């Protein structure tokens, strides 16, 4: 089998949430199956095997009670959309209770070696394999789900002095089922990881500019909306900077679009190297970029704009066509209370237009 594909550090928090959601889904399905099947098995035992032994029936009902309680608890929490990370430990407990229930009945009937024992042995084998499909962390979960009941059974039988039965064939099925269960759980765990990574990559590609690696317009719109909501709620301010490369069309016309792409890639790296930790930049379209400065005031926003302008202008851009002098014009707009995001962007865009008119390679603050 192939090794696990590592989860990138920036996705680990999302992967944890994904595991919580997976625990909820698996636990819901397992709880439904358990609450449907338990009455069926109890009825079969009462009518086919234990109709003459009321004490045996009540004993089996008692063994199944913890599993029924756990399944019911899971369904109640699930249907009430309870918050928190309760789903995984409860799912693990439910898995353990199912295998533990069957292992306990196996132990109680071990000495009889009758038809009922064979029935219990088959049930234990099926439970071992079935629980492998309801694991979140694969073989790591099964170390608990299989390990604790197995250790308890072996300890009890050894302490009781029971010898191996004459026909040991039914006992072979149990370790074989465990091996199959480990394979199933491992494969499912790898598939869960692969599905998560594929989903994250699709989302990342949908929100990332393929050329520069910067967030795209769609991603920035979500960040702008979040910052606007925070500013409205807390009475804070933020700044929007519209940046546009000067005479970029001439670069494409004289040197070709491949060189133009090289300029855009270098520009993106200079943005990332010179922005503060909380600042955001996205490719807005073509050679136009939008920068979001959370909590910015006029002084800090203009300082960031000037820093970016200087970082772009110096040193020259190294390209396959040689070193090129590239400059940037910026328009800066500060958010005003109750103003729409589109209006802030529009003012920043008008300020950028003024920067172009006034000679380019400068940052201009929006009026008003």
Automatic annotation (TrEMBL):
Residues in GGDEF domain copies: 236-368
SUPFAM superfamilies hit by this protein: Nucleotide cyclase
SMART domains: GGDEF
Catalysis: reaction(s): 2 GTP = 3',3'-c-di-GMP + 2 diphosphate
CDD domains with a match to the protein in the record: GGDEF
Class in the EC hierarchy, top level: transferase
One of the record's GO molecular function terms: diguanylate cyclase activity
Keyword Transmembrane helix listed: yes
Keywords: Membrane, Transmembrane, Transmembrane helix
Transmembrane parts of this sequence: 26-49, 61-79, 86-110, 116-137, 144-164, 170-188
Needed cofactors: Mg(2+)
Cross-referenced InterPro entries: Diguanylate_Cyclase, GGDEF_dom, Nucleotide_cyclase, Rev_trsase/Diguanyl_cyclase
Membrane among keywords: yes
E.C. designation(s): 2.7.7.65
PANTHER family hit by this protein: DIGUANYLATE CYCLASE DGCM-RELATED, REGULATORY COMPONENTS OF SENSORY TRANSDUCTION SYSTEM
Name of the protein in question: diguanylate cyclase
């Amino acid at each position: 089998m192939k090794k696990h594909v590592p989860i990138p550090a920036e996705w680990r928090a999302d992967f944890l949430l994904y595991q919580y959601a997976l625990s909820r889904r698996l636990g819901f399905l397992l709880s439904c199956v358990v609450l449907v099947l338990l009455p069926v098995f109890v009825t079969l035992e009462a009518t086919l095997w234990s109709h003459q032994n009321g004490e045996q029936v009540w004993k089996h009902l008692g063994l199944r009670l913890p599993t029924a309680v756990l399944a019911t608890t899971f369904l109640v929490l699930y249907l009430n959309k309870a918050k928190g990370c309760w789903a995984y430990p409860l799912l693990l407990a439910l898995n353990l209770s199912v295998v533990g229930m069957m292992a306990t009945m196996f132990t109680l009937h071990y000495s009889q070696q009758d038809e009922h024992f064979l029935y219990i042995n088959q049930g234990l084998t099926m439970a071992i394999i079935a629980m492998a499909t309801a694991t979140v962390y694969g073989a790591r979960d099964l170390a608990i789900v299989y390990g604790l009941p197995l250790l308890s059974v072996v300890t009890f039988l050894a302490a009781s002095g029971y010898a191996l039965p004459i026909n040991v064939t039914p006992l072979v099925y149990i370790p074989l089922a465990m091996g199959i269960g480990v394979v199933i759980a491992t494969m499912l765990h790898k598939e869960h990881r692969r599905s998560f990574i594929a989903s994250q990559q699709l989302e990342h590609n949908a929100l990332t500019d393929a050329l520069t690696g910067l967030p795209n317009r769609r991603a920035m719109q979500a960040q702008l909306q979040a910052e606007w909501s925070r500013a409205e709620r807390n009475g804070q301010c933020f700044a929007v900077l519209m940046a546009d490369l000067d005479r970029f069309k001439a670069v494409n016309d004289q040197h070709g679009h491949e060189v133009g792409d090289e300029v855009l890639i270098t520009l993106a790296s200079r943005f990332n190297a010179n922005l503060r930790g909380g600042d955001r930049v996205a490719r807005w379209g073509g050679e136009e970029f939008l920068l979001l400065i959370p909590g910015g005031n006029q002084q800090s926003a203009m300082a960031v704009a000037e820093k970016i302008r200087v970082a772009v202008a110096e040193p020259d851009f190294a390209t396959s066509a040689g070193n090129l002098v590239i400059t940037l014009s910026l328009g800066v707009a500060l958010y005003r209370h109750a103003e729409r995001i589109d209006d802030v962007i529009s003012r920043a865009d008008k300020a950028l237009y003024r920067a172009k008119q006034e000679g380019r390679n400068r940052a201009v603050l929006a009026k008003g």
